[in-house]
Write a sequence for this structure.
């Protein structure tokens, strides 16, 4: 066994713990189960202690972390379930299937709670866009999300994409799903009731995805990564669609005691977690599991074959359950029963092949990892802006920003996703947040994902606070009140003290910002070991925010809605060029301190904006973020197809005012007669207020600094991504492209 | 008027069609399960969009063998009104109720966006509420909407004015640039010889409420209601 446990990714100490817990040596099946369940991916052994500081409660939180998804009450008898997850490593090895099965997994997490999935959002991070590998990965990931999500009939309504060389080998594919349900239909992944049947529903089990969680997700990459391809699961969206409909029908008719999806660690995880949560034991007869091929018991226990669900069913309701599954042409087989005690007993043709306490599988070891401030930090934060040349042509810089890989229009991507199916999408992708109406009510949900890893790299604590603030701000700009958040924390190896320091600081920032802004963290996911050839990615926490728009009429988009409106900037612009897109694009620098964030001001600016929207004063609203006020204004013009003539009074140098990424700012438009009300309202919230000018015409002008036509702005912004990805982009370095054409 | 929305395993726009007929048009509507063999109680059958049987084979190639398709075919042969939207259109092609076939979009990508459509014949059960050559703004969402048909059939369809909708620009010009998927002759929607069977790639149910950005889809729904009222 000694060699085997190492091969399976367990340490000598962990193996000793298993022997101690069992009072004997584990057999091969048991060792396989422990190796998966105690992997970083399943056990959160490195992150658990740090995550415990996150605020998770509010009066409206129905389910916090620890279940398949978080659930909040949105009033009127309705609840919303949501969660974000990563599928980074599978996507690096096999982008199409990696991304596709990522969607499959997160969608199952949502309907497992009893909710109908109504939206997906996918934050993606890729390497240098000029590299052929990046194009291959991006093309595959987008096609995988489209191929799977479109088939399910769940609209993909948002997400974001950033490019940075730190993701060259290790792209990030994070997936968020949101579902809605009548409150009383909420169900948990709990096994209770001794004698109840354990029913496996869905696809047959095969050898795909053997050891996905331990081999792929919990190790860094090296030159053997391609050999891990067999560890990537293969998706079958058609069966997933049938599973959604069948499970929701089963739940609707009240036929289930508990429901759990099979994801990482397959049956081992589903059986041990449901039993542990319910405080019961479980007996499983493995020979009953429908198989695609000849498999050994340990393979069946750890296979990560997709599109499978585990249901706990009272014997009296079993026939009805099987009947409904048959109607949807799904396999449904009783593979076990709930028993007294706490053991998970696994049988294979009458022979007991595993017998372990379920709770010891479900709650693995806990590590207090050593952390140490990385050495790079002091170096990169030092930045003398005065030593840098100022641009001479601000308009040219703005056009370049608008057409840059990180800031340009994402139409090429989101048009490959069905973002309209289900008829709820009332603000299409491309604005600050996606807005989905809640049919049968006057309400809507506003959902946004954010995470600027450049800020987090420069200051993990502040950078993560900004991610929380910005996602909330995006929800507010769309007319919603932020309610709760989910997150996906993507980092390098936790075994490296410098990486663990980043993680610790980042979670502290997440906790502090969430607590200050009164936003409970209801679900989330940690993805470690995002590194390749010994180099970690930028620390990349991503926040997914869900907000409620009480009245659909209050939804807003960023586009200026017409001529003759006044353009107002709420919030204060300062010298915040550190970590900016401007600095990166113009000077090739990722340096300095990220923008300052005053959470108290942030809260007041958001409160002022939402009040102004609700009172009908503000007609459009847009968050100022990457690219600064200048890019925000350009986006307002392009989205509204109207120009603006602006006069800025400032002591700042033009390029600072234009491109500084100062936080807590909104660009809003307001009619002349409401200007005074807006000024008063801003004053009452002690929010800095500046009238910039007026909308109209077909160009954007700011002082004598710049004047750009709508046509050239839209062309720069809207055609960039497709050109970039088709490989026809002209770059400063033609050699980069020479070899990939 | 009583609509039946056919549900195949893998359909995913059935609830949208149901919603529009029920809540927007306020007409009677039922789901029709794909194993159903009797559709005689309906005045119009809707084959909705989606990925029937996953569309792992040619789109619609398996769905056409569903038991309900025998009933749909008999219903159509007797002059019953049948509309196939997106995957529903593909199924009608596979079932031989409409001529031609679908190739993948020339971009080789799924495309979801609003397009402009020119009504080429407004004297049909599906377009009688449209003005001559009216431009409708309705979304498409498909991977295989690149329509092809043999030249002789194409000629006949044009002569018989059975090409109902063509992709066009905002001003109604049928141009190569306004063709989103490479479809022959910019074809977006066609009818059978009796005009009682209509297949189209765009989704009128997604353009039937102001809040979704367009109500042009209502032209199609209201046309069929008008036709029913007139003809009984």
């Amino acid at each position: 066994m000694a060699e085997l446990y190492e091969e399976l990714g367990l340490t000598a100490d962990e193996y000793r713990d298993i022997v101690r817990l069992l009072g004997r040596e584990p057999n091969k099946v048991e060792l396989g189960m422990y190796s998966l369940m105690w992997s970083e991916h399943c056990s959160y052994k490195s992150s658990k202690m740090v995550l415990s500081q996150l605020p998770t409660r509010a009066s409206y939180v129905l389910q916090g972390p620890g279940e398949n998804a978080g659930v909040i009450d949105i009033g009127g008898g309705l609840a919303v379930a949501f969660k974000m997850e990563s599928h980074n490593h599978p996507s690096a090895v096999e982008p199409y299937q990696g991304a596709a099965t990522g969607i499959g997994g997160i969608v199952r997490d949502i309907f497992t709670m009893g909710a109908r999935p109504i939206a997906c959002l996918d934050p993606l991070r890729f390497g240098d866009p000029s590299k052929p590998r990046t194009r291959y990965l991006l093309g595959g990931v987008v096609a995988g999300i489209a191929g799977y999500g479109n088939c399910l009939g769940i609209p993909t309504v948002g997400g974001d994409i950033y490019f940075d060389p730190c993701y060259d080998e290790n792209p990030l594919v994070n997936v968020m799903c949101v579902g809605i349900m009548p409150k009383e239909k909420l169900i948990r992944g709990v096994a209770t009731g001794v004698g109840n049947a354990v029913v496996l529903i869905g696809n047959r089990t095969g050898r795909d995805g053997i050891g996905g969680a331990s081999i792929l997700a919990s190790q860094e990459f090296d030159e053997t990564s391609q050999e891990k391809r067999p560890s990537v699961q293969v998706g079958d969206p058609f069966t997933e669609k049938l599973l959604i409909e069948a499970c929701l029908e089963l739940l609707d008719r009240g036929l289930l005691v508990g429901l759990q999806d099979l994801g990482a660690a397959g049956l081992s995880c589903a059986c041990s977690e449901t039993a542990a949560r319910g405080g019961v034991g479980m007996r499983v007869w493995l020979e009953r599991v429908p198989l695609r091929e000849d498999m050994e018991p340990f393979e069946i226990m750890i296979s990560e074959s997709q599109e499978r669900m585990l249901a706990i069913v009272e014997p009296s309701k079993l026939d009805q359950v099987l009947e409904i599954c048959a109607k949807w042409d799904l396999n449904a087989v009783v593979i076990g029963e709930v028993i007294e005690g706490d053991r998970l007993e696994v049988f294979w043709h009458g022979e007991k092949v595993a017998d372990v306490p379920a709770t010891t599988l479900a709650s693995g070891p806990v590590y207090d990892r050593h952390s140490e401030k990385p050495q790079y930090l002091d170096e990169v934060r030092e930045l003398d802006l005065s030593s840098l040349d100022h641009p001479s042509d601000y308009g040219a810089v703005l056009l370049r920003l608008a057409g840059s890989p990180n800031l340009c229009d994402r139409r090429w991507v989101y048009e490959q996703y069905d973002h309209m199916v289900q008829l709820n999408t009332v603000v299409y992708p491309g604005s600050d947040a996606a807005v989905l109406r809640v049919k049968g009510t006057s309400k809507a949900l506003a959902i946004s994902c954010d995470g600027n890893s450049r800020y987090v790299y420069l200051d993990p604590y502040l950078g993560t606070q900004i991610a929380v603030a910005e996602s909330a701000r995006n929800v507010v700009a769309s007319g919603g009140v932020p309610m709760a958040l989910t997150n996906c924390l993507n980092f390098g190896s936790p075994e490296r003290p410098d990486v663990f320091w980043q993680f610790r600081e980042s979670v502290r920032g997440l906790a502090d910002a969430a607590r200050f802004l009164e936003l409970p963290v209801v679900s989330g996911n940690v993805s470690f070991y995002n590194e390749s050839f010994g180099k970690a990615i930028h620390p990349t926490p991503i926040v997914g925010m869900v907000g409620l728009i009480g009245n659909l009429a209050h939804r807003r988009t960023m586009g200026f809605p017409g001529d003759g409106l006044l353009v107002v900037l709420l919030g204060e612009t300062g010298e915040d060029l550190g970590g900016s897109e401007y600095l990166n694009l113009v000077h090739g620098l990722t340096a300095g301190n990220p923008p300052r964030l005053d959470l108290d001001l942030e809260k007041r600016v958001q409160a002022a904006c939402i009040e102004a929207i609700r009172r009908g004063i503000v007609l459009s609203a847009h968050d100022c973020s990457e690219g600064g006020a200048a890019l925000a204004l350009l986006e307002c013009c392009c989205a509204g197809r109207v120009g603006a003539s602006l006069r800025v009074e400032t002591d700042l140098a033009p390029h600072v005012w234009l491109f500084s990424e100062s936080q807590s700012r909104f660009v809003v438009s307001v009619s002349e007669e409401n200007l005074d009300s807006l000024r008063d309202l801003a004053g009452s919230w002690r929010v800095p207020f500046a009238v910039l000018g007026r909308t109209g015409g077909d160009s954007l002008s700011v002082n004598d600094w710049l004047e750009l036509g709508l046509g050239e702005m839209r062309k720069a912004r809207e055609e960039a991504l497709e050109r970039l990805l088709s490989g026809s982009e002209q770059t400063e370095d033609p050699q980069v492209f020479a070899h990939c054409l | 008027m009583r609509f039946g929305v056919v549900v195949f395993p893998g359909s995913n726009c059935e609830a949208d069609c149901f919603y529009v007929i029920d809540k927007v048009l306020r007409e009677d509507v039922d789901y029709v399960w794909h194993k159903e063999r009797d559709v005689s109680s309906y005045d119009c059958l809707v084959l909705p969009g989606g990925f029937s049987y996953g569309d792992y084979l040619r789109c619609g190639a398996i769905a056409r063998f569903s038991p309900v398709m025998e009933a749909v075919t008999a219903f159509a042969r007797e002059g019953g009104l049948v509309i196939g939207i997106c995957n529903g259109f593909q199924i009608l092609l596979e079932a031989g109720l409409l001529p031609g076939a679908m190739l993948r979009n020339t971009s080789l990508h799924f495309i979801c966006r609003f397009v402009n459509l020119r009504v080429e014949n407004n004297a049909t059960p599906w377009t009688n509420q449209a003005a001559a050559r009216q431009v409708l703004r309705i979304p498409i969402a498909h991977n295989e909407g690149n329509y092809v048909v043999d030249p002789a059939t194409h000629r006949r369809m044009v002569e018989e004015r059975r090409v109902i909708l063509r992709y066009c620009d905002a001003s109604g010009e049928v141009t190569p640039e306004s063709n989103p998927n490479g479809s022959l002759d910019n074809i977006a929607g066609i009818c059978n010889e009796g005009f009682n069977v209509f297949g189209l790639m765009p989704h009128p149910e997604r353009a039937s409420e102001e809040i979704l950005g367009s109500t042009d889809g209502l032209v199609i729904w209201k046309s069929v209601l008008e036709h029913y009222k007139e003809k009984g």
User: Anything to note?
Assistant: The interface with chain A takes residues 9-10, 12-13, 15-16, 19-20, 49-51, 53-56, 109-113, 139, 141, 143, 203, 205-206, 209, 211-213 of chain B (CB under 8 Å). DSSP finds five helices and eleven strands in chain B. The first helix of chain B runs from residue 14 to 24. Chain B has one domain: 2-231.
